[in-house]
Amino acid sequence: MISPKFREMLKGESVIRKMSGKGNVLAEKIGRENVFDYSIGNPSVPAPENLNDIFKELLDTKDPLTLHGYSESHGILEVRKQIADSLKRRFRLPYTYEDIFMTSGAAGAMAHALRAVVCPGEEVITFAPYFPEYVPYTEGAGAVLKVIPPDIPAFQINFDMLEKEINEKTAAVLINTPNNPSGVVYSTDTIIRLSELLRAKSKEFGHTIYLLSDEPYREIVFEGVDAPFVSSFYENTIICYSFSKSLSLPGERIGYVAVNPACEDAAMIVDMCAQISRFTGHNCPSSIIQYVAGEMIDETSDLSVYEKNSKILYEELTKLGFSCQEPGGTFYMFPKAPIEDAIAFCEEALKYHLVLVPGDSFGCPGYFRISYCVQTEKLMRSLPQFAKLAKAYGLS
After folding, report:
1. Lesser CB count within 10 Å: N end or C end of the chain?
2. Is residue 224 packed enough to be buried (19+ CB in 10 Å), middle (13-18) or exposed (0-12)?
3. Torsion of CA 275, 277, 278, 284, to 10 degrees
4. Which tens digits make up the pLDDT trace of 23-34?
């Protein structure tokens, strides 16, 4: 029998993919160079120049049976040590390889972390705006995702609502900073306040409330922005990380779970992840890309273009009359639509060759996401189109 659950999911197509598809249709008509597609967060800068050299060196020097064989379930020990050493060196926490589990990107990390600390029927709290895939990630673990409404316009945490919603069924709180889709970075004060609240509530309810920190944009933080390392403030933090954005390797699907060494049962949680793999079909990431990630652990692509694009676009949009919180990182911006129906607004934007994503599926109706990971030259060419769109709504 066909699964009714997944058949029903066919009706819920990703709005990001849907808008991207409309952009592709438009590109066939007028040429891709004339379509300003701000729908998908695909890095627009190349991987570091030495990436191919590292691949070649591994192919030339590594035993082929090792390089192309299965890794152990936890991931390659050497690479786990490299990641732990980097985290220890950068953030002054005593990570060891026993705290690291290799995954297929941040999505794989999330799938394992949720199953490790959340039981079926329990609740996971997150904050709007949030990445829409948090819904299937949480439901896949048999849990319920509760969304705290956005703290507009700053998009920090709405603590008043959080204190009302957190309860004895809360198993974890899920945060994403720097944030997709807003580009906002949670401040040190925000993280300290959240940590203090989780400690108090864990004591009140008699069980640990874990903090899951989704960090694929950790390295894309703009100059002067306060960007705390979340695990430094709350001992029961589990990081879900991806190299997709920092190294411009989204297609390679490589990331990791990092359990704070001070977390209760840290080593056991990592061991549990290896057992969870038996249910997810994850098993282990590609061995060669694990080795590459280990060799490039402290490197990034040239991420400066994202801050450059952000400043240009933010200045132009606010000048045109759009209301928007200035991003502190990532390659996303989340302006308020000039009408309540952001879906209708994004459909109208297509007439101006702009592919934007409505904020409804991010938990923020009335807003829209711009993924400005594009060439700066193309971004500049899109500005007159934004001006025309703004004028059509009486903004300029």
Report:
1. N
2. exposed
3. -110
4. 788 878 898 898
Average pLDDT across the chain, whole number? 94
Contact status, residue 102 vs residue 283, Cβ threshold 8 Å: no
Same domain, 9 and 88: no
SS3 354: strand
Same domain, 338 and 325: yes
Q: Angle formed by the axes of helices 287-295 and 51-61, to 10°?
A: 120
Q: Which of 248, 268, 295 represents a domain boundary (last residue)?
A: 295
Boundary (domain end) residue, out of 295, 315, 334: 295
CA nearest neighbour of 116 among 30, 188, 182, 208: 208
Same structural domain, 244 and 336:
no
Q: Is residue 171 domain-shared with residue 36, that is, in the same domain?
A: no
State how far the alpha carbon of 339 is from the alpha carbons of 16, 355, 390, in Å.
Answer: 20, 17, 11
CA distance 288 to 139: 32
- Give me the helix-helix angle, 376-392 and 342-349, nearest 10°: 120
Are 85 and 199 in the same domain? yes
Domain containing 376 equals: 4-47+302-392
d(CA 79, CA 5): 38
Q: Which residue has the tokens 């300290």?
A: 192
Give the mean model confidence (pLDDT) for residues 21-46.
Answer: 88
